[in-house]
């Protein structure tokens, strides 16, 4: 168990070091199956877990909430994966108080803004839906009826962005009643927003691009001809970039078009990740969801190999642990 704890804390340390370039191969942390111990599993399925969302708004984090160990609500999508590609969607679920409840049979994706609302938005084959945490209801949102396979939002007063099944990216406004295609984002396979509202996507060639107020720019400094890639919503401490997985390597890509390789390499690759809350993270691996509460791990049994790392990062950990959600809203 001690060895497993070391690996887990090292994995979670990505929240603090992600974005820093790799120094040399000896410093690499290789993510293996040891990072997914059964004791950290909170949910098991018969299907692959395709995506996970941890809302950073008032669904989970009230500004006046003094609870240091809240019951986190998750949204996740199940389906069938083949070589990293979604072959079939099998429903969108809410995980609350240890119980998973299917919210939409045809759900494909989920998102939530960083604000005071208790709303989340779901993409589905039948359009866009809104979830209200006050009563747990799910209702059709606006008039967009395209088959949506990805949906993202950062600022609650800002637009939604959706990716439709025909690989068109739309900016959705006016409470879901107006959609406008995003120029330059053609043949997108996935979309992601950073906390400054910049749109990231990649096409069939698996080369990521970013859409900013200055136009579309290709990200440079990445390997050529990757077999698999994936955009990941970053920890909230990263404002102008997102996480990008290239085969077994993890990069941070930025709105200025640059990229930096991190110290992590994936031998065991999660099918979904939710690191946005930073100190409480979720990963899906082998049809299970794992919860990593870094504060619980740190306050538990530690050993000599961790002391140096924790001493160096103690100020960062304390800052994030006490930081008000209002301080990192877009």
Automatic annotation (TrEMBL):
Residues 1-19 form the signal peptide. The keyword Signal applies. The keyword Signal applies. It comes from the Eukaryota. SUPFAM superfamilies: Quinoprotein alcohol dehydrogenase-like (SSF50998). Keywords: Signal. InterPro entries: Quinoprotein_ADH-like_sf. This is Uncharacterized protein LOC114249768. It comes from Bombyx mandarina (Wild silk moth). The gene is LOC114249768.
């Amino acid at each position: 168990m001690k060895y497993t704890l070391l690996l887990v804390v090292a994995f979670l340390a990505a929240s603090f070091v992600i974005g820093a370039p790799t120094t040399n191969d000896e410093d690499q942390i290789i993510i293996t199956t040891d990072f997914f111990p059964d004791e950290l599993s909170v949910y098991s399925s018969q299907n692959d877990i395709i995506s996970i969302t941890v809302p950073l708004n008032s669904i989970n984090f009230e500004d006046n909430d003094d609870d240091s160990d809240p019951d986190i609500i998750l949204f996740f999508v199940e389906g069938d994966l083949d070589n990293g590609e979604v072959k079939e969607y099998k429903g969108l679920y809410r995980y609350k108080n240890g119980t998973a409840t299917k919210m939409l049979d045809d759900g494909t994706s989920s998102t939530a803004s960083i604000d005071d609302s208790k709303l989340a938005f779901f993409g589905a084959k039948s359009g866009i839906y809104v979830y209200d945490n006050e009563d747990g209801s799910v209702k059709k949102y606006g008039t967009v009826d395209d088959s949506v396979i990805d949906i993202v939002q950062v600022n609650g007063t800002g637009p939604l962005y959706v990716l439709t099944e025909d690989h068109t990216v739309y900016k959705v406004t006016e409470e879901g009643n107006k959609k406008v295609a995003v120029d330059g984002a053609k043949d997108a396979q996935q979309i992601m927003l950073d906390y400054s509202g910049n749109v990231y996507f990649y096409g069939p060639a698996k080369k990521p691009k970013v859409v900013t107020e200055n136009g579309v720019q290709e990200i440079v400094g990445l390997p050529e001809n990757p077999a698999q890639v994936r955009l990941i919503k970053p920890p909230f401490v990263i404002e102008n970039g997102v996480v990008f997985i290239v085969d077994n390597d993890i990069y941070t890509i930025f709105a200025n078009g640059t990229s930096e390789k991190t110290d992590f390499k994936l031998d065991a690759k999660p099918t979904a990740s939710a690191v946005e809350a930073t100190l409480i993270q979720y990963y899906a691996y082998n049809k299970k969801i794992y919860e990593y509460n870094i504060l619980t791990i740190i306050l538990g049994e530690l050993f000599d190999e961790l002391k140096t790392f924790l001493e160096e990062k103690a100020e960062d950990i304390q800052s994030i642990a006490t930081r008000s959600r209002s301080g990192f809203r877009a």
